[in-house]
Amino acid sequence: MLPHKIIEQRLQQAVGAVLPDADLANVLVRPCPDPKFGDYQTNALMALAKARKLNPRQLAADVVAKLDVADSCQPVEVAGAGFLNFRLKPEALVQTLQSAARGEHLFFEPVLRPRTVVVDFSSPNVAKPMHVGHIRSTILGDSLARTLRLLGHRVITDNHLGDWGTQFGMLLVGWKTLLAAASLQADPLAEMERLYQTVSAQCDPEKPAFNQAMLDRARSELVKLQAGDPENLAIWREMIALSRAQFDTIYRRLGVKFDHTLGESFYHPRLQPLVQELRAKGIARESEGAMAVFFEDLPQLKEQPALIQKSDGAFNYTTTDLATLAHRLETWHPDEIIYVTDARQQLHFQQLFAVFRQWHPEAGVKLAHVWFGSILGEDGKPFKTRSGDTVKLSDLLDEAEERAFEVVSAKSPELPEPARREIARIVGLGAVKYADLLPNRQSDYIFSWDKLLALNGNTAPYLQYAYARIRSIFRKGNVGQRVSPVPSPQSPTTNHQSSAPLHLAAPEELALARRLLNFGLVLEAVADDYRPNFLCNYLYDLAGCFTAFYENCPVLKSEARQRASRLVLCDLTARVLKQGLDVLGIETLEQM
Ligand code: ARG
């Protein structure tokens, strides 16, 4: 068992001995924010003391009295308002690194109690190109799913496509009256978007192009579609197929996979009975001709009832999401469902979760809306193309690869073009993904090509370069293949070569070793708080510690025992960098 897990277990036992009624699930160990004070820390005792009106420092002292971690830690310190700081003994540090070098773990272990987690992410809308807003959901959602999976949870990813709704009335009119076959062939999403925009401008009474006959026609096409008219259904299916083909091209390019793609239309047959059930149970009631759920007991939603059926009988986004939730619970029995969308949908999810709690008060499932801010241009306004259009994801990825190609060609003109293209692909896509993952997800961020492609700074190219540089040490030293393939939770690693004895003496060696040990804790923090930025910052810090080590501690030129020991540190760093980037959905290169 890894030291932080042993410490956590013993800490929970000690807390249980002092406070037999305490909920130990929240008694966790985290990396110490400042390595000066220790390797690990817990702040759990302060919350426990507060809830019981105890003196937190006294509680901390009582827990320490019952806590036995002397085999792996130096004496535990009570700090500040009641933190406990733990510092590993050097022997424990060396042992853990050694077992990692033998391939027994990579500083993380599968969780003891795996959870079933549904991750709902990406979820673009049919007949519309994916834009930069969907990129953040796709990239964040993918890295959360990867992290949870790596930690041993059972993850189910579901792409909740927007493939049903009033827009299809307009799209059908456009398809029947304005379709340009050649444009549809060349770029189906662009053509469908053109149809939608042309017709919707004519269906909007506020716009100069408004045309009542057009609006009536769109409505009647929608009614026909909903009634199962074969012609309209066939067109609708074709629109979905064309859209999905283009989405899939982007997902392949990004290396993103979904276990399921159940669009909104899948839930259509459930909507009417659902509204009836909510009404029969007294959860929904009629209000101004529509059907709504009120939240008298929730101050923040008191003025914001959720509409589940409009006065014209139509169901909406909330109705569909309720049916989706019911389906997921019946089918997968998840412990947790995570929805990754932009900040503008916060009210929607608050309402959804609140209706669900009235509907199924017994359900223990945890529901989380993982929301994120917008991507801004360098002028601080919403990110747009020069002509003022929304930026399409595929264009953005093309540009990333093109710009990375220029950088690579300037740096390594001697490489043949196909090799430079492949490096540019990995660096360009990695840079875009990392730019999305690095900022705190709840803040807006400014998209800057120069910043995200920089080779020094907290960027993907920097980390990819750090990895490739370590690999070049092994090539130069002719030490052979060491980094093992990215491990799966079932078989942590299979590298049995790095079992040279370790000697950690230089402060830079110790600092690097301590950072390596934190990898698992950081992965757990990412999974608990849904924040891949923790991992980005950890990897950047790790790469910095490696640089300090490499500048101060000769590796290939040192004498045999030290050289072997330092090569182990190099190898473990490379493995953590590779695994960490993999969890972010970013590929690495052996040579750059
Ligand atoms: N299709 C929606 C959009 O593009 C996102 C759907 C998110 N998932 C959900 N279950 N509501 O805004």
Helices, strands, pairings?
Elements: H1 3-18, E1 30-31, E2 40-42, H2 44-51, H3 56-66, E3 77-79, E4 83-86, H4 90-101, E5 116-120, H5 132-150, E6 154-158, H6 167-178, H7 181-186, H8 188-202, H9 212-226, H10 230-254, H11 268-280, E7 284-287, E8 290-293, E9 306-309, H12 317-332, E10 336-342, H13 346-359, E11 366-372, E12 375-376, H14 393-411, H15 417-437, E13 445-446, H16 449-453, H17 460-476, H18 507-517, H19 519-529, H20 533-552, H21 560-583
Parallel strand pairs: 5-6, 5-10, 10-11, 12-13
Antiparallel strand pairs: 1-2, 2-4, 3-4, 7-8, 8-9
Helix pairs in contact: 1-3, 2-3, 4-18, 6-8, 6-9, 11-12, 12-13, 14-15, 17-20, 17-21, 18-20, 18-21, 19-20, 20-21
Polypeptide structure, described:
The structure is a single chain. With 592 residues, this protein is α/β, with parallel strands linked by helices. Helix content is 52%, strand content 9%. The protein is built from 21 helices and 13 strands. A four-stranded antiparallel beta sheet has the order 1-2-4-3. The protein starts with a helix and ends in a 9-residue tail after the last helix. Mean pLDDT is 93; it is low at 489-497. Residues 120, 123-125, 160, 162, 321, 324, 339, 341 line the site of arginine.
Structure summarized in a few sentences:
With 592 residues, the protein is of the alpha/beta class. The protein contains 21 helices and 13 strands. Mean pLDDT is 93; it is low at 489-497.
